[in-house]
Write a structure and sequence with these properties.
Layout: H1 14-17, E1 23-26, H2 42-50, E2 54-57, H3 67-71, E3 76-77, E4 86-91, E5 103-107, H4 118-126, E6 130-133, H5 149-170, H6 193-206, E7 216-220, H7 224-233, E8 238-240, H8 246-252, E9 258-263, H9 265-268, E10 269-271, H10 279-284, E11 289-291, H11 293-297, E12 303-306, H12 320-327, E13 350-353, E14 375-379, E15 384-386, E16 394-397, H13 407-426, H14 434-438, H15 443-446, E17 449-452, E18 455-456, H16 462-469
Parallel strand pairs: 1-2, 1-4, 2-3, 4-5, 5-6, 7-9, 7-12, 8-9, 12-13, 13-16
Antiparallel strand pairs: 6-17, 10-11, 14-15, 14-16, 17-18
Helix pairs in contact: 5-7
Length: 470
């Protein structure tokens, strides 16, 4: 079942918010034409306004929610948000758009000292901005409290099913996956469910040809991203199996259903020296482990759905060398249009790299794709990408803002996650005493403050060290 909003979502406490002399502004998203999300939906804004807090909304005719919807619940639509004490968005603004001496909240993409985010970080420090980064709003176990991951998984899965249909056709095989569109073609997630059911009915009645079937899927990770992707997959006729069973399923499985395995650390990580896996040992010694996916599971996987958060020195899911071994077998694909029953050069046809860590867990995923151009075919022999799906290689989808394809539902979901913490965020006063304020606010908020008083917050001083090492 798809995740839906429940009645148990925490509401803002009016008494708490009304204490603050504050104005909250929702900034217009400017990162690209597809970014139609907002951090809060109109009904969230109504709760804040009803508590006595002023809310400003920058005008945007691109936003998935209409300006009138915000105005009807008491927000003020205005270009000038300089009177706001707190400004929130989804994606980071351009450095020149930052207003000095404000409290901001957005995804900054700076905590790994990403080079592309450093001009923004420098400007936040120069303009004395207090930044709350949603990515670091976590519980005590490090699990994110505020995220779009579930909808990234949903959109990424819908997209790659479409991409599979295109890749199979380019190899000479028609399939019902040609009839599913990209995620933004559906107004709601529920709209795609009947399409998936029709695909399943077609698979059961006609079956895919043996040269391509059965389709096998490998899902990495067990968090919100993977769960969202699997919530789409599960509307197809399917069976979950262990990683060790993928070979038999690929060679002897029922062509009328899809097989899937979920790869966790416990079933995909092995110590190089043969000692047994343990979570504690892995966390302390990730560099002593190898990921068995490329060797034991990938050769029997039609589609890899990557929802795994990665950072060095953790083993990669697929390396450049893995790609050469798996996809560099020679030029066969381009001749398939002349064959009635084609030869398929390798089992894996597509990768949905939902996490989109550039050069990360999928090493050859070197640049994001876009909603307008969602797929690239990676050729490991030349280490280049192409738009021609009939060439050798593997199709890669690596859109870095997938939830924007389902903007209204993604906004609802994200706002539901954010609202239990909005009171604590709005309680922050941007002044020289903010460091002491953080000691008295919720850990979820204090853990996520990246910059304040023109400096990196204590937990993020390491960013300066990372920058010097680059």
């Amino acid at each position: 079942m798809f995740l839906t909003r429940t009645a148990s979502v925490a509401r803002v406490q009016s008494a708490a918010l009304s204490r603050f002399k504050t104005t909250l502004a929702i900034r217009r998203e400017t990162i690209n034409v597809w970014e139609r999300r907002a951090p809060l939906a109109p009904h969230h804004v109504k709760e804040i306004v009803d508590s006595g807090v002023n809310v400003l909304v920058q005008p945007s005719t691109r936003r998935a929610y209409y300006m009138q919807e915000y105005e009807e619940v008491g927000a003020v639509i205005t270009e000038d948000i300089s009177s706001a004490t707190h400004i929130i968005g989804v994606k980071a603004p351009e450095p020149e758009e930052l207003i000095e001496d404000k409290c901001y909240a957005f995804f900054s993409h700076t905590i790994k000292a990403q080079p592309e985010g450093m001009p923004l970080l420098d400007e936040m420090l120069r303009k004395n901005i207090t930044l709350l980064d949603y990515e670091k709003m976590t519980n005590e176990d490090g699990i994110r409290n505020v995220a779009f991951g579930h909808y990234a998984g949903i959109a990424g899965m819908i997209n790659v099913l479409h991409g599979l249909g295109l890749r199979m056709l380019s190899l000479g095989v028609t399939s019902p996956f040609l009839h599913i569109g990209l995620a933004h073609n559906y107004a709601t997630v529920a709209d795609v469910v009947p399409v998936l059911h029709r695909i399943g009915e077609s698979m059961k009645r006609y079956k895919l040809p043996k040269v391509i079937a059965p389709l096998t899927f490998s899902f990495t990770g067990s968090g919100n991203v993977s769960q969202g992707a699997r919530s789409v997959f599960e509307h197809l006729p399917h069976e979950y199996i262990e990683p060790s069973e993928m070979k038999q399923a690929a060679l002897e499985g029922d062509p009328s259903i899809c097989y899937a395995t979920v790869l966790s650390r416990a079933n995909s990580m092995e110590r190089i020296d043969g000692k047994p896996y343990s979570p504690e040992d892995y966390n302390a010694n990730a560099d002593l482990y190898k990921n068995i996916f490329a060797e034991k599971v990938a050769p029997y996987t039609t589609c890899l759905v990557n929802g795994l958060y990665w950072e060095a020195p953790a083993p990669r899911v697929l390396s450049d060398e893995d790609a050469v071994r798996m996809f560099g077998k020679g030029s066969q694909a381009k001749n398939n249009i002349m064959r009635g029953i084609p030869q398929i050069p390798h089992k894996m046809l597509a990768i949905s790299d939902i996490t989109c860590d550039i050069g990360g867990s999928i090493e050859f995923s070197n640049e994001p794709t876009t909603v307008g151009s969602p797929f690239q075919l990676y050729d490991p022999k030349t280490r280049t990408v192409h738009n021609d799906f009939s060439r050798d290689g593997v199709v890669v989808m690596s859109i870095d803002n997938l939830p924007c394809q389902l903007p209204r539902e993604a906004t609802e979901y994200f706002g539901d996650c954010l609202m239990p913490h909005i009171s604590d965020f709005l309680s922050l006063k941007h002044d020289k005493h903010i460091v002491s304020q953080l000691k008295n606010t919720s850990p979820c908020i204090s853990r996520a403050i990246i910059t304040t008083n023109g400096e990196l917050a204590p937990d993020y001083k390491y960013i300066s060290t990372l920058r010097k090492e680059q």
